[in-house]
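Action item from last meeting closed. Structure (290 res):
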């Protein structure tokens, strides 16, 4: 008998028995909760307003709200938190502005309870800017209509986010990039974003892209996701083309979409939306905005 074949199962059994007898103790770090603090955030306009401001928001867990309305500076609003390390930090450097979620560092396995409070409510001024938002597992509510955003980039983890342009973006946006994990994301009013190119990357989640609004130029859109549910809504009468590159995706469309192979067309006049969808698996729904 070949001893090599006897050796393999013996090694496997030995490893399994060792794994069962080994205990790994990882430190558990209890988040220290104190009194809830309400803090005002006021960021002045950059001194050089001849070029767009570079605005960066870094947020971890909690609730983040962004809307128009700042009148005295580029950002105004408030933060509520009850963990000292979550205190927001504002940094300005020339034309760059950043608001960062404190100095909280993960050590061991942190214990977060429902008693942790971390809420930001921010208003932005209508001044030309590029906006970068980086967040973790959180809930976000962004109303960006009426602002002057020339580039938008959002990156987050497991999240629930609503992002919208109920009124037109006041300047031409070159790119809108959104990258997320296992999350629920709805982006509405994309026709009002005044954007040339949209790139959306997701993991396993539920995603809705609503192109309602008034197009001011042709728009190209790239959607790349894992096992997910993707809904695309385009107003009736807007020219659009959707190409699906996934054999494991079920596609459902309303009567306004005409299918030819893996391409779906909606006839219309004016500017056109061209969308390429790549999905690992899941469902793709093509509907009309209400």
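Sequence:
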């Amino acid at each position: 008998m070949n001893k090599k074949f006897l050796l393999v199962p013996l090694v496997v059994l030995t490893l399994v028995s060792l794994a069962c007898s080994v205990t790994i103790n990882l430190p558990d770090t209890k988040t220290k909760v104190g009194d809830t603090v309400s803090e005002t955030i006021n960021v002045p306009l950059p001194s050089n307003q001849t070029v767009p401001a570079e605005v960066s928001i870094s947020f971890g867990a909690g609730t983040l709200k962004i809307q128009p309305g700042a009148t005295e500076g580029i950002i105004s609003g408030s933060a509520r938190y009850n963990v000292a390390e979550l205190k927001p930090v504002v940094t300005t450097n020339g034309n760059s502005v950043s608001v960062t979620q404190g100095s909280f560092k993960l050590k061991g396995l942190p214990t977060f309870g429902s008693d942790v409070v971390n809420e930001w409510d921010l208003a932005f001024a209508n001044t030309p800017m590029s906006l970068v938002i980086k967040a973790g597992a959180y809930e976000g509510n962004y109303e960006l209509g009426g602002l002057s955003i020339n580039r938008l980039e959002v990156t987050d983890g497991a999240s629930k986010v609503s992002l919208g342009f109920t009124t037109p973006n006041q300047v031409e946006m070159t790119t809108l990039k959104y990258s997320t994990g296992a999350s629920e994301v709805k982006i509405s009013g994309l026709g009002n974003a005044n954007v040339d190119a949209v790139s959306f990357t997701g993991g396993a989640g539920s995603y809705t892209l609503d192109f309602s609004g008034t197009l001011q130029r042709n728009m190209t859109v790239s959607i790349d996701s894992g096992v997910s549910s993707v809904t695309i809504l385009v107003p009736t009468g807007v020219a659009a083309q959707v190409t699906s590159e996934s054999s494991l995706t079920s596609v459902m469309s309303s009567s306004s979409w005409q299918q030819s192979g893996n391409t779906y067309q909606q006839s219309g006049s004016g500017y056109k939306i061209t969308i390429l969808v790549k999905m690992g698996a899941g469902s793709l729904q093509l509907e009309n905005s209400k």
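Note appended to the action item: The radius of gyration is 24 Å.
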